[in-house]
Every structure is written in C-alpha cells, then in structure tokens.
Amino acid sequence: MNIWPKIFFSQLLWLALIFAAKQEVSAQTPAAPLCIGETFSLASKVLGETRRLNVYLPPVYRDSATVRLPVLYMPDGGLAEDFLHVAGLVQVLVGNGTMRPFILVGIENTQRRRDLTGPTTNAADKKIAPRVGESATFRQFIRRELMPAVRQRYRTTAETALVGESLAGLFTVETLLLEPDLFDTYLAFDPSLWWNDGQLVKQAPGLVAAYRGPAKTLYLATSSQGDTAATARLASLIRAAPRSGLTAYYEPMPAETHATIYHPAALRGFRRVLAPRKAK
C-alpha cells in the first residue's frame, strides 16, 4: 500500500491550516491603548523636581461642560502604586450611588519616605531612607503648586479630601493635626503613628483641643498589623473633644493585613465619609 499520497495530503492540509491562521491574525484590528484617565507633569519649585500626577474623571464630569466636582487627593498615586485600584473604587461607588462623584488626583512618588514623614529623633526612623522628615515641604507643594494647578485644569468645587495608607496615612493624620485647613475630609488606613516614637499622637490632645475652625472629618482603619492602640486613642480623643469641629470614625479590620487593608478600608471609608448627602 502506497502511503505517500496520504502523507502528502496531510502536509498540504497542515500548511493550509497554518496559512488560514496567519490570514486570521493579519485580519485582526490593531490593539489600542486602554485609557482610564489623564496624566500631566508639574515642575515644582518647592520640591525642586518635576512631579507626575494621574487623574481620574468620573463620567458625570466628562459628559458635562459645566459640572464642578470636589477633588480627592492621594499620595502613592502612581500607576504602579495605588492609583488604579482606587480609581476603580471611585468608578464603582459613584456608579452605584454610594459615593459622591470626586475627581481623583494621584501624586506619583519620587522619594516617598522623604515626603510622607515628619521630623524624627528616632535613630531607627532615620535609617529607612537617605532623606526623611520633609512632610511640611510636601504639604507646601500641595498647597502652593498642585492645588492651584488642579483648579486651573479642571472644574472643581472648594471641597477637598485626602486619602493614604501606611506612611501616607501618617501624612494624612499629620496634615489634619498640623494644617487642618488644607482638606475637608481625611482618610488614613494603617497610619504609621509609631513614627518618631509616637510623638504625633502624644501632641494630638492639645492640637485637637485648640482647633476652632470649620468642620473636618477623619476616617481611620487598622489591620491586624497596624498601630491599633495609637489609632484607637487618636479617634477617642477627637470624639471626646468638646466643640472642636472634628469628627472621627474608626474601624478596626482584624481580618486584613498591612498589605491588604487599603482596598477594603477605602471601600468602607468612601461610603462612610464621602457618601451622597441626604436632601434636606
């Protein structure tokens, strides 16, 4: 029996299948970038460097030529940091009506430990990076350069919020206590309140008691690995302060770790303190 015709036919069939597959691939449309927001760079005189900002705009903003929205600022806001999952939360919560629409502005890091920590006398703290303790300068960048740039580029209201986790949570709490006028709402998850031997929380009673400005809101959450004692103490003293104008919420999340707390805490926090306002 001559098998060569069968072999020849099978080879022809195989070549035909390969040719058809190549034709199908070549007929596919080319892939296009998937865009979820905007990005721009800002040359900072305060910091002496150029900073990259990532921005998510809710559909209600994009679909209107006149609507103005409040702004939610977040350190750790790079594409390789926390911007994408927080933008996704904003999109989902705004879409299902459990959060008011906010413009999200992510501040991408250059020297994270420099920008998000205050001064420290603790030797171990000083070893975590070549430069630490310059949070006051970072706040000046936000106040004097970033916020004006955002107001110029986008249609914003006067309302602002700040969200951060870990050292960014420390920065959030420090900003509330030292420069409370900068934002209206503060959200801090597993804030590193151990920094500088816990001096920030030790100073908090006097700072909270002295505050007589507009109403401010703080949302706190801690994981099983967070500084739960200091965080709970901070929330308690704010709640106990008479006529301070400060409101604090605290949710311990023992099922979460330091690596997992950001997303679930942001989900709860945004629903709690950035929820749609009830009609009067």
How does this model look, in words?
The chain is α/β, with parallel strands linked by helices and 280 residues long. It has helices at 4-27, 59-62, 83-95, 112-115, 123-126, 135-153, 167-178, 195-210, 228-240, 262-273; strands at 38-44, 49-56, 69-74, 103-107, 156-165, 185-189, 216-222, 246-252. It has one domain (34-273): Alpha/Beta hydrolase fold, catalytic domain (Rossmann fold, 3-Layer(aba) Sandwich), CATH 3.40.50. It contains 10 helices and 8 strands. An 8-stranded mixed β-sheet has the order 1-2-4-3-5-6-7-8, with helices on both faces. Strand 7 (216-222), helix 9 and strand 8 form a beta-alpha-beta unit. Helix 7 packs parallel to helix 8 and helix 8 packs parallel to helix 9 (228-240). The protein is globular and about 80 Å long.
